[in-house]
Amino acid sequence: MLPVTLDRNRGEPLPAQLAAQIRALVLAGTLGTGDRLPSSRALAADLGVSRAVTEHAFDQLTAEGWLEARRGSGTYVAAAHTSGATVPEATSRSTRVTSPRFARSLPRSARVTSRLDTGTPFFDPRLEPGWRRAWREVSATTPPRGYDDPRGLPELREALAARLGRSRGLDVRSDEIIVTAGTTDGLRALLPELRRGPVAVEDPGYRAAAESVRIFGREVIDLPAVETVCDLGDAVAAYVTPAHQHPLGRVMPAADRLALIDAARRAEAVVIEDDYDSEFRYDVAPVPAMATLDRDRVAYLGTAAKSVVPTLRLGWLVAPPDLHERVLSRRTITHSGAAWPSQRALLTLLRDGWLDRAVRSARRVYAERAPRVAEAMSPYATLAGPLAGMYSTWLLPEPAAVRARDAARTAGFEINLLSDYARASGLTGLVIGFGGVSDAELDAALAAVTAALVRT
Ligand SMILES: Cc1ncc(COP(=O)(O)O)c(C=O)c1O
């Protein structure tokens, strides 16, 4: 096999990349005059590209005189250009690249910094075989021929309904679920169906939610994230994260849940419950979903972003009946729905018990890391909420938080400021995610952060 590797993330077309690397191999003497190249079909199979890519590269190099095609026999390195002896040894070695089969790591640009963010969950490498099995099953399954059920794959909705009942106390039928392309897609489906008027979003709160509200031309009202809300004013909806307030971490107490639902009833508004990471309580069982209290008043949004990966782009919406009907008819007309391959893969992951294993193993990792973060940070800052999920939030004066963020950045780690999530509340500090890094990276990041802080 030729020692070449192609990178789909580079802007350069694959045939041009392949031609450049074969040229380099000839120049380096790795390929000598008269050497026979693999057939375009075999090379394409080895590299995992279409035959058009290899044929295109061979044609180009033949046209340039590097290669020659011998009728009925194959493609060979042409005589005139073989000049390996003139190429310095170092250059020769630097052109050697590994086979794509073993080049699994991310492109360099994605590895520059490690992100200690709230959006990168732990992915247990021991679960990779199950993950690959699910996708093999997708590839072996015939997709629906036309636009399918706008609510999403029926078998997936069945599995989700069972899971919501089991883990979130939500007693739903599968036809009450709409599979979405994630929480934000669910929110964007709801927004055009609401009465005219502003939408209250927690402050500090999920930036994607506030931004989505604005995109739909609605005013964002700041909903204090840790206070009892008894009045929604003229808001037509309130977007909240009751199981684990994002990013302060508080669990909304039962009395506050009831007060908010009551306020929504009086304002004829809907509560939009973003239940993004409730599986990740380490001390107690997850708090039941707020939607269990009033299914006619609360629209429930779930996501696979934390329990699987955000790039799957899958979530689920259980809306009050009138909203459900309106969302569904608009999604039918606009062909908005989650991509079938992702839905089919999630179905297998649920059926195989993969998702339960993934949640258990991530929960174990978070339960071990959260106290490590707390031990490092507590001499310098105040914890904003109980330890849960894959991040913790630390209150600090803004200058100290910025100093710590900058020190982390210099050490190669990206950490978010609490002020990035705050609007009128003006809360400041650091939001430290610990799902997407290794233990060693976490320790190094914490060392950088705490070195920039002063003990209180
Ligand atoms: C508060 C909150 N909700 C929801 C999500 C997931 O959104 P989506 O399902 O659109 O990826 C995230 C992801 O980071 C989040 O932080």
What are the salient characteristics of this protein?
3 domains; 14 strands; 13% strand; 7-stranded mixed beta sheet; Aspartate Aminotransferase, domain 1; Arc Repressor Mutant, subunit A; 456 residues; Aspartate Aminotransferase, domain 2
Structure overview:
This protein is α/β, with parallel strands linked by helices and 456 residues long. It has three domains: 97 residues, Winged helix-like DNA-binding domain superfamily/Winged helix DNA-binding domain (Arc Repressor Mutant, subunit A); 100 residues, Alpha-Beta Complex (Aspartate Aminotransferase, domain 1), CATH 3.90.1150; 228 residues, Aspartate Aminotransferase, domain 2 (3-Layer(aba) Sandwich), CATH 3.40.640.10. It is built from 14 helices and 14 strands. A hairpin with a 3-residue loop joins strand 1 and strand 2. The structure holds pyridoxal-5'-phosphate. Pyridoxal-5'-phosphate binds next to helix 7.
Concise overview:
The protein is an alpha/beta fold and 456 residues long. The protein has helices at residues 14-28, 40-47, 51-64, 89-94, 128-139, 154-168, 183-190, 207-215, 254-267, 321-334, 340-351, 354-377, 398-410, 439-451; strands at 67-70, 74-77, 114-116, 177-180, 199-203, 220-224, 237-240, 270-274, 298-303, 315-318, 382-383, 391-395, 413-417, 429-433.
